[in-house]
Amino acid sequence: MNLRAIDLNLLVVLETLLEEAHVSRAAHRLNLSQPAVSSALQRCRDLFDDPLLERGRGVMHRTPRAEALRGPLKALLVDVHALLDPVERPLRDLDQVIRITAADDPTLLIAGPLLASLSQSAPGLKIVFQPWSGTDSTLRSLTDGDTDLAISVLAVDQPGLERVTLMHETYVVAMRKGHPAAKRFDLDSWLAWPHVVVSGRGQMQSPLDVQLAEMG
């Protein structure tokens, strides 16, 4: 059977027809015309190769095949409804592991308050903080499902990922008293001095470099 040729709406009509065993009542429940429901019934008969509803003395009777279809059909449509419109579970009922990838600084900043809050609102959640190993690696982990959340500096939106701004940080330059750079210190003079890049993965470019490049 070619599943692509099956109209899901046809199964919705069939469920109502099998419940009512009456075309007019089914049409009224579905807010459809009687000819439209009669046409759907004929398509269902062709699909299942069975009369499904047979006319008796003033009433229609479900065939044995129709009776056998009622339970599985109802269960199928319930599953489809749950798939398309899932019931949101309360936080307190969740029992799962959430993996968060973050560098040391944001982890130290949010871990305590986050765990304290979740212990009250979602005690079944288990939080695992995973070490930061660079933007590219983290994006792959998010895409592959190896991590659920990441706290990072992302210069641009990434396809398939949702980004929410958590905070804004500013940089502070610290220097010894009497350092020559302190005189008329500005961005140009800061950039003129030699720099050392501290990178856990040996990367020569940081998110700050990306921002500076955009500034020209």
Automatic annotation (TrEMBL):
<dbReference type="GO" id="GO:0003677">
    <property type="term" value="F:DNA binding"/>
</dbReference>
<keyword id="KW-0804">Transcription</keyword>
<feature type="domain" description="HTH lysR-type">
    <location>
        <begin position="6"/>
        <end position="63"/>
    </location>
</feature>
<keyword id="KW-0238">DNA-binding</keyword>
<dbReference type="InterPro" id="IPR000847">
    <property type="entry name" value="LysR_HTH_N"/>
</dbReference>
<dbReference type="Pfam" id="PF00126">
    <property type="entry name" value="HTH_1"/>
</dbReference>
<dbReference type="InterPro" id="IPR036390">
    <property type="entry name" value="WH_DNA-bd_sf"/>
</dbReference>
<dbReference type="Pfam" id="PF03466">
    <property type="entry name" value="LysR_substrate"/>
</dbReference>
<dbReference type="GO" id="GO:0003700">
    <property type="term" value="F:DNA-binding transcription factor activity"/>
</dbReference>
<dbReference type="InterPro" id="IPR036388">
    <property type="entry name" value="WH-like_DNA-bd_sf"/>
</dbReference>
<comment type="similarity">
    <text>Belongs to the LysR transcriptional regulatory family.</text>
</comment>
<protein>
    <recommendedName>
        <fullName>HTH lysR-type domain-containing protein</fullName>
    </recommendedName>
</protein>
<dbReference type="InterPro" id="IPR050389">
    <property type="entry name" value="LysR-type_TF"/>
</dbReference>
<keyword id="KW-0805">Transcription regulation</keyword>
<dbReference type="InterPro" id="IPR005119">
    <property type="entry name" value="LysR_subst-bd"/>
</dbReference>
